[in-house]
Amino acid sequence: MAAPARRPEPSRRSPDTAAIIVAGGKGLRFGAPIRKQYMQLQGRPVLWWSLQAFQKSPSIQSIILVVPVDDVKRLSRRMRAWGLSKLSAIVAGGVTRAHSVREGLKALTKSVSWVAVHDAVRPLVQPELIEQTLRQARRWGAAIAAAPSKDTVKLSNGNGCIASTPPRKTVWLAQTPQIFERRLLEKAHHQGRHLPATDDAQLVERMGVRVRLVQPSFENIKVTVPSDLAMAKIILKDR
User: Fold this and answer.
1) Which of 175, 154, 171, 167 is CA-nearest to residue 218?
2) For residue range 72-118, what is the model confidence (pLDDT) as tens digits?
3) Could you tell me if residue 38 is inside a domain?
4) The domain that contains 179 carries what CATH number?
5) Is 50 a member of any domain?
6) Is 197 among the domain residues?
7) What is the tally of structural domains in the chain?
8) For 60-75, how does the pLDDT look when each residue is reduced to its tens digit (9 = 90+)?
9) Which of 3, 22, 98, 205 has the highest local Cβ count within 10 Å?
10) 109-114 long-range contacts, Cβ below 8 Å, gap at least 24?
C-alpha cells in the first residue's frame, strides 16, 4: 500500500474520534503478577487518570475501555460513580494486546472515523497531546506519540553480543496515544491478525503506510516498574 500524501490542514470539526483504552495487562515486569491499571495513584486507580484525559479531550466522541474478562462487571458498576459521560462500553480483552484492541474496534459505532489507542498504564497523558497527535493523524492518516532516544541504542545478535548500532537520531521510543484513520487501523489488524506486533503502529507500517511521530513531554511515562509509579506521583504532585 502506497504511503498517503500529506493532507490539507483540517478545519474545525465535530467530535468523530473514539479512544480505545487498553487495560488488560498482567504487570509481569512489576516484579510479580499485578494489575497495574488498578494501583492507586494520588488516591485514584492508574487507569482513572488515562480515562480522565480522554474525557477532557474535545475531539473525543466516545471511549471504549478494554479490561480482563473477570473485571468487566465490577468495573461497569464502579464507572457509574466516576461520571465519565464519554465512556460508551467496557469490553473483555483477549490473550494479546492486539487481540484486545480488535475487541475494542468491534465496539465502535458507525459514526467514528478516527481511533486513538492508548495504554491505560500511561496515566500522565494530557488532552493537549491527544489533540496534537490527532491533528497529525488527520494530515497523514496515522500518528503516534514517540520520544527520541536519549541513549545510544545497540541491536543484539540474539546471543548477548552487539549486532549493530543504529544512528541515535533515527531511534524513537514508541508511546501512546497512537491515532489512525479507522478503516486503515481495521485493515491493518485484519491483515496482521496472525503476525506478532507490540503496538498498532507496527501493523500499520507493514502496509507501507508512513506513521507520523509526535514528540510528547517527558511526563508521558508508562507505569512498568515500581519506580515508574513513584515518578508518576511526583509529577502529579508538581502539576
Assistant:
1) 175
2) 999 998 888 899 999 999 999 999 999 999 999 999 999 999 999 99
3) yes
4) 3.90.550.10
5) yes
6) yes
7) 1
8) 999 999 999 999 999 9
9) 22
10) 109/18, 109/62, 111/16, 111/61, 112/16, 112/17, 112/18, 112/61, 112/62, 112/182, 113/16, 113/17, 113/181, 113/182, 114/16, 114/17, 114/18, 114/138, 114/179, 114/180, 114/181, 114/182
